Every structure is written in C-alpha cells, then in structure tokens.
Amino acid sequence: MGEVEVKLLGSWMSPFVRRVQWALKLKGVTYEYLEEDLKKKSPRLLNYNPIHKKIPVLVIDGKPIAESPVIIEFIDDMWKHNPILPIDPYERSVARFWAKFIDEKLSNVVRMALFSEGEEQEKAVKESIESFEIVERELFKEKTLIGAGEGIGYLEIILGSFCTWLPAIEEGAGFKVFDSNKFPLVNKWMTDFLELSIVKEDLPPRDRLVSYFQQIRHFVLATKK
Amino acid sequence: MAEEVKVFGVWGSPFSCRVKIALKIKGIEYEYIEEDLQNKSSLLLKYNPVHKKIPVLLHNGKPIVESLLIIEYIDETWKDNPLLPQDPHERAQARFWAKFVDEKCLPSLWKACWAEEVERETAMGEAWKNLELFERELEGKRFFGGEAIGLVDIAAIRIAFWINVAQEAIGVEILNKEKFFILWNWIDELLGCSIIKENLPPREKLSAYYRTRAAAAKGSK
User: Fold this and answer.
1) What pLDDT score was predicted for residue B42?
2) N or C: which end of chain A has fewer CB atoms below 10 A?
3) Residue A51's beta-bridge partner residues?
4) Touching check for B215 and chain A: CB below 8 Å?
C-alpha cells in the first residue's frame, strides 16, 4: 500500500486528541504531530476545521477529518490490520452506542460542570453521576463488551480517555462525580486500563492538567459574566 | 436463513422514518410496530433500557438503537445498494455531515422555528450559517451521496420534510427558497423519489400536529 502523509493537529491537554493518538499507535501509523494553541487558533486549524474550529483534526494527504469518533472509524477503515472496532455488525453497533452515550451523557455533561457554578453545576454533576450509574449497571452486563488488558478497542479508547482525564477535571473544577465505592465495576476496569503500557507511557502530568483545568474554568466563568 | 426484522417506531418520527427508508433501499422486508410514547410497551423498554426510545431495529432477536447507528448496521449487514461510500475518507465525510445534521443543523433550525419574536433574528442567523455550510456539501451533486441517496440524505430528511412542514405550519420561513435554492433542488429531488415519498408520514397529519403546537405556544403567553 502506498504511503500516505498523516498529520494530527492536537493539544496536549485534550482527551479527544489522546484517543486518536492511541488509535494511530495501535495501527503502527507514523504521523506528524502539530500542537495547537487553543487560545490563539492557527490559520492552519481554521483552514482544516472551519466548521467546528476544534482539535483533533487528522489530515491525510492534505485532506482533513474532524471529530474524534469519526477519525477513529476512519483510521480503522483505512488501515485494516489490528481492528479497533469489532468485526461483527451487531457488536459494532453496541460499541458505537456506548461510545455515543459516553460522549453525550458523560463527556459533554462533565464539560458543563467544568464551565458552570452553583445550581447549573450541581445539575450537571447530578446528571453525570446518573450516567455513571447507567454505565455501571448496563455496560458490564456482558463480559464480551469491554475488557481492558485483553485488547484495547474502540469503546475502551472512548471510555478510557474520558475516565483518565476525569480526576484532573474534578480536581481543577472542585466537584466530585466518580465515587469508586459507588462504581466498583467501572473502577476496576479503570485501574486495569491505566496499567496498559499504551496508556501509561505518555499521559500528561496530573498537576499540569489540574492547573490547566483550573485556569480554563476561571477564564470561561469570567467571560460569562 | 429466515430473517426476522422488526422496526419499533412512531408515525411522525423522522428517526423511525430514517430506518424504514434504509431498509426499503436495501429491499429488506420488515414488520413495523407502532409505539405509543405515552404508554411504552414492555418490549421497547426491554430492547432499549438505557434511553427507552424509538426507533429500535430488531434483527433475529438482537436490538439495535439510535437511528444513525441503525443505518450503519443495516449497511454492514446487507451489502446491496450501499448507503455509505467505499472510500475511507468519503465515509468519514459522510459520518461527519450526518453528525452535523443532528448535532448542529437541526437544533439551530428548530430553535429558529420556535423562537420568540425577540430572539428570532439571532436564531435565524445561526440556522442560516449552518444551512450555508451544509448546502456547500451538495455543490455539483444530485444527492449528498452522489448519484444515489446515502447516509447524509437519509439523515437530512429531517430538514427536507420535517422542517419544511413545520415552518409552513408555524408561519415562518427559515429554509428560504431564494437563499437556499441549491438545497431546495435537492429537497425536490429527494421528496420526488418514490422510496422516500412512500415512507414519509402524511403531510397534512404532521402539519396539523405542528399547527396545534404553535397555537398552544402562542396561547401560553
């Protein structure tokens, strides 16, 4: 297969970028990483993602792809070895379902908690906890659904990136969503996930992340007023 | 092998409509079950315990939920008349735009449709911005999927029909014919296809539903 030129526009502090990096690593794809300053978005970012103006953006031979779940599916379509999504269509639909749930009902809601205060934040925290209850109750029902350490796939990438970042967001913003006693199955899964070498090897330092989330929260709240 | 395919839906839902259209394009026979959302069946709650929503596709006893995910499942299970492109980059674009329809375009369109007088201009501006971006994807093509209807066309039936009917019933014009003539050409092409036409809810029934909602909204002021 011919070589393609692969670039990734990202930011060190983004779990969504990390997802894409794990996917590329699983496929053994070489790429050029371009760090973006989100406070001052580059013309290159605005050119490659004019619609959302966000990272990550994967650029293949000059053609951009945005939105981390779309990018990961692209990576899986493009490089067929070491499949990231399950092969069976039903299992694929289940993986995609939970990935969507995690992004819509956890990632997005936790972001709301990060960037709000008072009643608005309380509501977002409550919703996040309810979403974790659903994950704890439903996601681990069938053992085949999710198994870190047995292989990292699509759903593991999505859930893992979110759970890895969550403690720093909680500390940075001063709220608590994840109680390890309340969610023992998720907690066990997370502990195993964090031991995987692909995950461990280049996580951003916790205190740097915490500091980042503190600052960004402060900035956003100040802008709201 | 005998296939058992069932669809749980609601007559007026654009989401169950998407699933019916995808199955029809593939030539798959199915049993349709109308759900009463005020009184959800135990089957629906069993097959979609997390969201308790329609549509649900049941294939040989296995439930698949979320309309866009159902379409991908349908495309991967029955290979004739592909709904997504083969090329990985084009597939990614199709998924991106289908997401854009649901996450950005439709919410802004609905907001503009139902906006109060004072908010309408801002809401309309936002909706138009999204429509302009979306319309650009059509340029030179008969459908978003190219020569044949694809994932993005099926996703955007919400715009072609539901927003269309709603704005007429409410008495606003978000999807402006002069401004978005390329999109309107696509709407005419799409709604002219028999496979689409036959699977849409009755226009008058949907219009009456929106008129009632509009009247109720006015009445509550």
Assistant:
1) 93
2) C
3) none
4) no
Rounded Cα distance between A88 and A92, Å, is: 6
Q: Provide the 3-class DSSP secondary structure of residue B32.
A: strand
> Does the beta-carbon distance from A74 to B89 stay under 8 Å?
yes
**Which pLDDT does position B139 carry in this prediction?**
84
**What span, in angstroms and rounded, lies between the C-alpha atoms of A96 and A89?**
10
pLDDT in tens, B26-59: 999 999 999 999 999 999 999 999 999 999 999 9
CA closest to A72 among chain B residues:
B92
**B180-199 mean pLDDT:** 96
Residues of B in contact with A92 (CB under 8 A): 72-73, 76
What's the rounded Cα separation, in Å, for the pair B21 and B197?
10
- Cβ-defined contacts of A68-72 (< 8 Å, 24+): A68/A16, A68/A17, A68/A19, A68/A20, A69/A96, A69/A99, A69/A100, A69/A103, A69/A158, A70/B92, A70/B95, A70/B96, A70/B99, A71/A20, A71/A23, A71/B92, A72/A19, A72/A20, A72/A23, A72/A154, A72/A157
Nearest to B76 among A66, A92, A101 (CB): A92
| DSSP secondary structure string for all residues of B201-214 | PPHHHHHHHHHHHH
> How far apart are alpha carbons A53 and A34 in whole angstroms?
15
The answer to whether the Cβ–Cβ distance between A73 and B76 falls below 8 Å is no
pLDDT at A143: 58
- Cβ burial, residue A110 (10 Å; 0-12/13-18/19+): buried
Residue of B69, B87, B130 to mutate when probing chain A, most A C-beta within 10 A: B69
- A206 neighbors A172 (Cβ within 8 angstroms): no
Could you report the per-residue pLDDT of A124-171, keeping only the tens digit for each? 999 999 999 999 999 887 655 565 555 789 999 999 999 999 999 999
Average pLDDT value over all residues in chain B: 95
At residue B46's C-alpha, the angle toward residues A146 and A152, to 5°, is 10
Distance, C-alpha B123 to centroid of its chain:
21
Q: What percent of chain A has pLDDT over 70?
A: 95
